[in-house]
Fold this protein.
Amino acid sequence: MEILESILTKNPCFQAGRKIKVRGLMLHSVGCPQPSAEVFMRQWNRPDAARACVHAFIDGNTGKVYQTLPWDHRAWHGGGSSNDTHIGVEMCEPSCLKYTGGASFTCSVRDAALAVVKRTYDAAVELFAFLCREFGLDPLADGVIVSHKEGHERGIASGHGDPDHLWEGLQCGYSMDGFRADVSAAMHGVISGVGTAKTAGEMKVSDRCVELVAGFEGCRLEAYKCPAGVWTIGYGHTAGVNPGDRLASEDAAKALLKEDLKKYGDYVNNCLKKGLITFPLTQNRFDALTSFCYNCGNGNLQKLVTGRDADTVADKMLQYNKGGGKVLAGLVRRREEERALFMG
């Protein structure tokens, strides 16, 4: 997380200079199709910007946090008594939304929107974990972390539906309960996921991935030497294999394959951590990319996903169907199955 101090010194809220004892944090989203935090800062850093001022914006394009007020400054964000107790943070929203009235909107490019929402969500988790540590707050305690919508339901904020309306409208799986759990997890050194805390192992290979890979790999239950002279068993497993080894069943071979696939799943996770994957990574997409990586290698995986949305990745995946410069029927089928899983 990167926090850039960009205090709105010309805003009347800052100039009022009132302080609060921080008792909670309120999460907002801006309620319009604007991913750039700098746009809001330019609009609000003026003497005539007297309607609102928050403590921070999270940029939808970069995930950077722009701190616009000192954290213990009384802001104008909740429209009620929450101004006297809570820090207010605004998440910027995707440019591909079109508001049709109130909190209702349409979305023209869902994958792009989900990427922006994930970026702001992840940054908000880190920021709120930092602020909870800074002010000694328990993120799971009642009323400590609330959305603007929840603030209104509690009678401490004005009648807005953010950011719940955004997450629900895009059906992205985020919720305030999940957000609070992710903040708590981040405070204790684990990585946040889609509304549920996950350990540092991140996403893991599912049995569906194992079945897909196994369907294209030969299985031998007795140890044999591969063309490179390495003792091998099952679906290409080599670690610790000795002459005379035998597996009891294909299920045992698949268990070894699942262990081997962890390495390739880690390559996919690393692409996500490095920002090479910018679209939401569902279990199906993770499994499909793991299978692809197992067959085509980490270099081709990075080439496939870098700078592309999910639909483009799915289409480009089909091009990796050649061996020795010739299109191979087996690779055509494999890519088609991986694409079908990726899009499922």
Remarks:
- Residues 207-343 form a domain with the Lysozyme fold (CATH 1.10.530.40).
- The first strand starts at residue 3 and ends at 5.
- The chain is about 40% helix and 15% strand.
- The radius of gyration is 25 Å.
